[in-house]
Amino acid sequence: MRKMMIALIAACALAGCSRAPVAYDGTSDGPFPIGSYKIRAAQVDYQPDMSYRIFDAKQVFVEGRYAVDGSTITMTDVGGKFGCKENPAKYKWSSNGKSIKLDLLEDRCQARREAMAESPFEKIDQ
Known about the structure:
By secondary structure, this protein is α+β, with helices and mostly antiparallel strands. It has one domain: Lipocalin, CATH 2.40.128. It contains two helices and eight strands, in the order αβββββββαβ.
């Protein structure tokens, strides 16, 4: 058993095994804080697979994909009632570990701009 564990650890070190998302370290310089946040009377989920969705108990407002480059998040809507598929958005993100704030860099979608302007969004404990 011990030999098998050592072999597994060595294989992971050489091959670069994927890890679970790293816990947010409390600074904006850390990894993007995936998770669920309160937005208006709805919720936004940022998933480890780089997808997001904004929804409530009745409907999905927006579904999309996101990419993070340092303190910039780029969001591209792919569906939902209010999705702006043709207009990716860029925001500067920051977090204190309890909430996330998105500051507008570029967004031609009025509905998304209005929703994101209400940040910071409080993290939902799960």
